[in-house]
Write a structure and sequence with these properties.
alpha/beta, glycerate kinase, domain 1, single chain, disordered C terminus, six-stranded parallel beta sheet, 481 residues
Length: 481
């Protein structure tokens, strides 16, 4: 791709590269052994798991099995049944499918092979409330966890101890069969036991730790949940003998996708700086921090004359303060825009690689120097939108949302900030420009200034149009021409 003459298109291209790198059709087959002659059972859960099942059958042919995917994330398979269920809050479809999955792995023998295809989102999709709990209890706890602002690792500790399938319990149910788990990581640090709350990996934590997390974040839970967490541990310890024949491999991770995006940016002539693939914290705080960093680097970029891309990944959380429509990436983006306050030459894109930001069917957002002004013209106050967790309403009003539909993979959040060199705009007499160049000139001036395009630019050209509105137009040389 050429140098970033269209910042949004360029950043979207980097995001697409990151997503494509984690496509299960690319990454599953290299990790599959030769298909054994005995019984093979394929199970799984997660946003990428239906695509993983499709990839497994592309390599092995029709297989027996059951995989649970998010609504809209199903794929056509030859033998494996795909059941769709709710995410991020579980529903009856997920609960019924999980019961069937547990029944399917019952009474397996040592000669059987179970292939487990696990990806992010499985914590909600694998729904088997522990004894004494109901689906309503599970839904209430899940909603409270999502609104608490607790880190994903802490949420998963609670989920494991309130389940009959998480924290290694699915692996124990497959015993004594051989178990191979292929995982697509969506967790900071790529801890395999945290992906989908680790249904096939041992868990060392205790119920008392889950209760402490609930108390620390002041999460309101049903009495039955507190009672359950005061009972003996249900999760399977890492040293449990039932895990002796279980193997797990991470086949796609955020670091790989960020590396591919960095390569694409470098090919386009940009310098790249990685901020890490495992950043966690409150979305609005991290968004503001990265915006401050980008602003501080503008002079360095101007001096070099070369665009700079800041890349990062991880998983942010949102502490719910109001009932607006938003998600971690949209809130991250809005906080960054407010911090930058229209600063020139900085464009940002923050998206979830699974195509869903929080509970919204929006991947994320792209904001530019003109975003705040455009929002105010549309009658939306940016500060109020952030305060009310209502970033998606603002972004919809300014066409700032990135909509992908189901990506069929999930390697956590992708964040890219493009900082371009600034230089005085080269002015050419308007009458010397052809019609196509005039249209491009008008379009770019509107994009940079946020001023509605006039009916005529006038014979004096772009300079007068800008000066008459007391704008000092600046642009990167690579954006002009």
């Amino acid at each position: 791709m050429p140098l970033p003459s269209d910042p949004r298109a360029f950043l979207t291209h980097l995001f697409q590269v990151a997503v494509a790198t984690a496509d299960p059709m690319r990454v599953v087959a290299p990790h599959l052994p030769e298909r054994p002659k005995g019984r093979v059972l394929v199970i799984g859960a997660g946003k990428a798991s239906a695509r993983m099942a499709e990839a497994a059958e592309a390599a092995w042919g029709p297989c027996e099995g059951l995989v649970i995917a998010r609504y809209g994330y199903g794929r056509p398979c030859q033998g494996i049944e795909i059941v769709e269920a709710a995410h991020p809050v579980p529903d009856a479809s997920g609960e019924a499918a999980t019961r069937r999955l547990l029944a399917l792995v019952k009474d397996l023998g040592p000669e059987d092979l179970v292939l487990a295809l696990i990806s992010g989102g499985g914590s909600s999709l694998l729904c088997a409330p522990a004894d004494g709990r109901t689906l309503a209890d599970k839904v209430a706890v899940n909603r409270a966890l999502l609104a608490s602002g607790a880190p994903i690792a802490e949420m998963n500790v609670v989920r494991k101890h309130l389940s009959r399938v998480k924290g290694g319990q699915l692996a124990a149910a497959c015993h004594p069969a051989q178990l191979l788990t292929l995982l697509i990581s969506d967790v900071p640090g790529d801890d395999a036991s945290q992906i989908a709350s680790g249904p096939t990996l041992g868990e060392p934590s205790l119920p008392s730790e889950a209760l402490a997390i609930i108390d620390r974040h002041r999460i309101e839970v049903p009495t039955s949940v507190r009672s359950l967490l005061q009972q003996p541990c249900r999760v399977v310890a890492p040293e449990d003998a039932r895990l002796a024949r279980a193997e797990a491999r991470i086949i796609a991770a955020p670091s790989q996708s960020l590396s591919a995006a960095a390569s694409a940016a470098g090919t386009a002539g940009c310098r790249v700086r990685s901020l890490g693939d495992a950043l966690e914290g409150e979305a609005r705080d991290l968004g503001a921090a990265q915006a401050r960093l980008a602003f501080s680097l503008r002079s360095e970029v101007r001096a070099s004359g070369q665009p700079l891309v800041l890349l990062s990944g991880g998983e942010c959380t949102v502490t719910r303060r109001d009932n607006g429509i938003g998600g971690p990436n949209s809130e991250f983006a809005l906080a960054a825009a407010l911090t930058l306050n229209g600063a020139e030459s900085i464009h940002v894109l923050f998206c979830d690689t699974n195509g869903v930001d929080g509970a919204a069917e929006i991947a994320g957002a792209c904001v530019s120097p003109g975003t705040l002004a455009a929002a105010r013209r549309a009658g939306v106050d940016p500060a109020s939108a952030l305060a009310g967790n209502d970033a998606h309403t603002l972004l919809a009003a300014v066409s700032g949302q990135i909509v992908t539909g189901p990506t069929l993979t999930n390697v956590n959040d992708f964040r890219a900030i493009l900082i371009t060199p600034s230089a005085e705009l080269r002015l050419l007499p308007w009458q010397h420009l052809d019609a196509d160049r005039r249209r491009r000139c008008q379009k770019r001036l509107v994009a940079w200034t946020g001023i509605a395009k006039p009916k005529s630019m006038g014979s004096s050209g772009a300079g007068k149009f800008a000066a008459s509105r007391q704008w000092r137009i600046r642009a990167s040389p690579i954006e002009w021409g």
